[in-house]
Design goal:
This protein is an all-alpha fold. The protein is built from five helices and no strands. 66% of the residues lie in helices and 0% in strands. The chain binds heme C (HEC).
Length: 140
């Protein structure tokens, strides 16, 4: 974007120089010269400012709060498994003694099993991963 503006102003500047040689009106030249220089410098400054603005914007994207597996568990899973994972309601397994691997848990949570509802359409893959990781913390 900046390069395009830079090019446009360079062309305009060039044309005003040609105009100067054709008209040879000193006062006119001085006026346009200062005007063009002003616009040129303003463009450079605005380009510089844009760069400065973009720098703090990048870490903002990275600052998006991490997905809270514990929160998701309390909302979606504790109804059956209980906050500590041991409730065992609706025939649900005690998560504190589960021997499943992370991959198996992710698959089970995504697809559901028996009474356990599938979460694939409800939670995002990264949320499922976060909640699966959280179920390991229930182990004691
Ligand atoms: C409607 C009740 C219910 C809800 C809600 C529920 N589960 Fe389950 N869950 C079950 C049942 C029932 C089983 C046992 C399935 C089977 O083996 O037939 C189970 C099994 C599991 C297992 C496997 C345990 C093992 O060792 O076999 C994991 C892990 C699990 N649930 C995690 C979760 C997570 C995480 C959530 C929340 C996203 C959740 N569950 C929500 C009922 C539920």
């Amino acid at each position: 974007m900046c390069q395009i503006l830079f090019c446009i102003f360079a062309i305009i500047l060039y044309q005003f120089f040609i105009l100067f040689f054709l008209t040879i009106k000193h006062v006119y030249f001085m006026k346009t010269k200062f005007f063009i220089c002003g616009v040129f410098i303003a463009t450079l400054f605005s380009c510089g400012n844009k760069k400065e603005d973009a720098t703090p914007a990048a870490p903002l994207v990275a600052d998006v709060p991490a997905i809270d597996g514990e929160k998701i568990f309390k909302i979606s899973c504790s109804v059956c498994h209980g906050v500590d994972g041991k409730l065992g309601l609706n025939g649900s397994k005690d998560l504190s003694v589960s021997v499943l691997t992370l991959e198996e848990r992710i698959a089970l949570i995504t697809n559901g099993k028996g009474v356990m509802p599938a979460q694939g359409a409800i939670l995002k893959p990264e949320e499922i991963k976060a909640v699966a990781e959280y179920t390991f913390k229930l182990k004691k």
